[in-house]
Amino acid sequence: MLLRIWQQKIIDNFPSIVSRHRRFILKAPTGAGKTVLASEIVERFYKGKKIIVLCHRLVLLEQLEKALGEKHAVHKLSVSDLGPAFEGYDILLSTSMRAKAVLADAIPKADLIIVDEAHRVSPNGTGYKRIIDDFNEHGKAEAQFIGLTATPERRTGDQRDQLSLAFDAIIDCANIENLIEEGVLVQPVYRPYFVHDLDLDHIDISSGDFPVAQLAPAIIKSSMIDYAIRSYIVERLKFQTKPVSAWFCADISVAQATLHAIQEAGIGAAIVTAGTPLRERMKLLADHERGGIEAMVSVGVLAEGWDNPQCNIIVHLRPTLSKVLWGQSVGRGLRSASGKEKCIVIDVSSNWSTFGPVEKLEWSLWSHRRSYMQFMNRLNWIGEQQGGDDDGDIYLLCENQLPNKARCSHIYKKSTYKDDTCPVCGTYAAKDIYKERKRDSSLNENGLHRLFFDRVPKVYSEMNVSIWKNLGSSAWKSATEKEQVFLAFCMAFAEVSGEPTQSESDYWNAALAAETRIRAYLTEKKFRIVKRDFFDLSLLADGMLAGKEVRTLQSHFGISLCGPVFQTHTRAESERKYQKAIKVAERLAMIGCSAQDNLPYFNATDHLAAQAMKH
């Protein structure tokens, strides 16, 4: 089999990877060829050995059975299966919930377990927890547990349900930009809009995302579908080849309203949902791939496991707080095909302005309570591009009034088009988004970084350090909740390693080690950090300035912790410490710290008991 460059690189490095890691994720974009890679790994390194392949959906099982069945003896586990595993076959395909007795028999025998769409793995859930525990306790010492996904992140505040507890490393196989250069994927061209009358402010998001029962009426009440249709009609006419589109909707009511609007425009369309019978769904999707159906409207079935290389337009009508959903759905349009040069991404949900382009997304093995809150700001990513009033990328929002009295509302980058005219309506009637709509916090991370690296060395050089360095107990004892956040950041900057890390798991191991030491110190001293609903970067800036929220004692003690780092570490080391310290401080602020801590990496009761034994 002729492998792609990135696939061959992983195959060449695979012996080295498994010598260092037992449980790891192979991360590569949607459409890169992860299933082909898995098949080649099996062929090269596990031929004739016992293998379990797991996924969460029946349609994915069908795809994996077809891909692996060409060269291997494959058995797809059914709910009613009984008896010993691996009798007459080498590869067992299953969802995590099927025939539990057979799976329990198979895990100790397996040389390899592969999990497709590994971001779905819940280390504390009813399905995968049993499998992970069985593998850790009874699996062969030389066996591997490998995940495949384009989006290795779980957004959950449960510290016992973090992806890092199932996998000890992420192997970054390929990124979207490199695969575009190689012709494996096509370039996404974004057409983002800010729909002014979409009101999400009063929707309850305590579940971590917009509940569809509240989201769907807001979408239908707004002009979102109108914007999507209008933009689609314009964009489809620009293609020399036949337009083939996938429309992502929040629920069936939105999908049906969208389908009706598309058909009213004279465009062939159909709808698929989780309730569509599998045979009918496969028939519709096959017709869509052939071009018989131009627009496929979906609810919850195309974001994962669906592959139609002919799809050249993605229309996003699903506002979300999940960048996994955003990344997975847009990735479905990036596969290359003959005559396909690009994929137009029409986003009327503000997901592009919230998360940024999918090729720029960053992923994390750990999340914290309410980690989704920053994405309530629908211009979050645009705000992050601004380092201040005069630097950083500037984005414009077109306010030109169209013949139907609606505003154009297209978002585009300043200095990209001639005279800064809007690429959609061709006029200049735009405003600077950053200036008009400031981010929720008064300072973004770029501005904080500049202030920290300028201010701390200067203040520290002018301090009488002997006065401040012994005031830690006083600073913590009298600290307000906001001052606790600043002190946690300063302690983290002093504590965390500045050494370079080679993987996402190495990064978090270093960050959590520092967090553990801080928790230990605070627990021993009987100090606590009250958990907060928001992590406000401006509190850190205020502490450096001894401003309104952070008083002089806490400000100067914090700076006395940070200052020595600049004298003993290189700039690169300080940069690495700073980035980790932000993450540690955010976690401490959002999770809190107390004598009741019971986390996978720190149990306060056990720590105090161990300390008592020493004394």
Map the helices and strands.
Elements lengths: L4 H16 L2 E5 L6 H12 L5 E4 L3 H11 L5 E3 L14 E4 L5 H7 L5 E5 L11 H11 L5 E6 L19 E4 L3 H6 L5 E6 L19 H10 L2 H13 L8 E5 L2 H13 L4 E5 L4 H13 L4 E5 L13 E5 L5 H9 L10 E6 L3 H5 L24 H5 L10 E4 L12 E3 L16 E3 H4 L8 H18 L2 H4 L3 H6 L3 H15 L8 H21 L12 H9 L6 H17 L2 H21 L6 E2 L2 E2 H11 L1
Write a structural description.
It contains 23 helices and 18 strands. α11 links the parallel β12 and β13. α1 (5-20) crosses α2 (34-45), α18 (481-495) packs across α19 (504-524) and α20 crosses α21.
Described by the principal axes of the CA atoms, the overall outline is globular
Number of helices: 23
Instruction: Give unreliable regions as ranges.
Output: none
The overall average pLDDT, rounded, is 91
Structural class: alpha/beta
Strand content: 5-15%
Essential attributes:
globular; alpha/beta; 13% strand; 18 strands; 7-stranded parallel beta sheet; 6-stranded parallel beta sheet; 615 residues
Give a nutshell description of this structure.
Helix content is 42%, strand content 13%.
